[in-house]
Structure formats: C-alpha cells, structure tokens
C-alpha cells in the first residue's frame, strides 16, 4: 500500500513539473502583455558604472540615481536625483542612459517572449537549474545587434520569470563581449526586473576597455494615464 501511495505521489509531482513548452511560452507572453498594458510606472533607478582593469578591479566609478517614469516600452521622463564620480572613467562610460526615442520601433524593446516578436526566435526547454525550475534557451532565427540570445530561468507552474541572461546575437563594432543579466521580482507594476547588470569589453588593437553597470530598481509606483500624461520630460 505504501509503495502504491509513493508511486502516486511521484507521478503527481512529475505531472506538476512537466509544462509543455508552447503553453509556457503563451503564458510568458501574456505576462509581458499585461506588464506593458500598465498605463505608467514610477521607479527609482540606482546605477553604478565601473571601468575595470585586467584583473577585474575597479579603476573608476560613477554612481547615479534617477526617478524614471515608464509607459510600456517608452521612458516618459528621467530625472537625475544624484551623481558621484570616483577615480578614472572613460567619457563614453559617463554617457546618460539611452532610452528609446519616440520614433523608434518598439519591437526592439520587447522581450523575446512577447507575442509580437516570439516568431523571430526559437526556444528550447531544459530542467533546472534547481528543482521546480526550468531553463528556456532563446535563439534568434536571424542574427543582428537588436535580437538577443541567451537563457531564461522560469518557474513553470506560475510561468514567472526568475532571471534572464542575454547577449546580442551579433556584436556591435569594437565590442568583444556584452552580457545583460536580469533578476525579476513582483512589483505593483506586475513582475519586472528589479536588478540588472550590463557587462562587456571592447576597444581597438591594444586599447581595450572592460566595464560593467549594476542597476537596482525600487520604489515601484503604479500610475494612471492622467499622471503619465502630465509628467513631462
């Protein structure tokens, strides 16, 4: 009897763990649409940009804090609250964040899981990295600088993104490497990245630069359409 009950429990656990890939992609796509349907979201972004030496130690650091209002894929406003520079930092690493322009194709800002762009990618599902999670491999059907490749860690029963690790399927000129890591959390503006890290290296001939930017996103405040429209830039 005990053996029978054990087999039933194992079978039930296995059934819960197995979620067909297409069902998982559909639910991840629905979550992306729901997130982008939020009229507006005000957040605080704390970023630390560093130039690194060959051993990975910081040569210079730029710490900045912004109040940002987003509506879908658009940044409606970005207000700098503080800035502190330490050590030596290349001028290129001091540039302000490049938010999407009004006339820019929003498809370039969409997650690979969004239904509008999902057909441009191939997906594979594998168990792990630990029990109760799966890893989804993301591969663009066509390589270019805007289409990203990488992996996403997902909780399949809830179709919640845990983390995502992406890099361009085709690197921009003078870049040797570039990686973006996302950590997701539940917020008043739906499930969204709460930590990001951009890291890369590049340059010309013997002049090479290593860099990373770590961003923490907090204080999420859901806004209605009226509040977003009156926020200005």
If you compute it from the alpha carbons, what radius of gyration comes out, rounded to the nearest whole angstrom? Answer: 20 Å
| Biggest sheet: strand arrangement | 3-2-1-10-9-8-7-6-5-4
**SSE succession:** HHEEEEEEEEEEH
**Helical content (DSSP H or I, runs of 4+):** 10-25%
Fraction of residues in β-strands: over 45%
Described by strand count, sense and barrel closure, the largest sheet is: 10 strands, antiparallel
Number of helices: 3
Structural class: alpha+beta
Report on this model:
The chain has 233 residues and is an alpha+beta fold. Helix content is 16%, strand content 50%. It has three helices and ten strands. The protein has helices spanning 2-17, 21-36, 225-229, and strands spanning 40-52, 58-71, 74-87, 121-127, 134-140, 148-155, 160-168, 175-187, 190-204, 207-223. It has a ten-stranded antiparallel sheet. A hairpin with a 2-residue loop joins strand 2 (58-71) and strand 3. The termini are far apart.
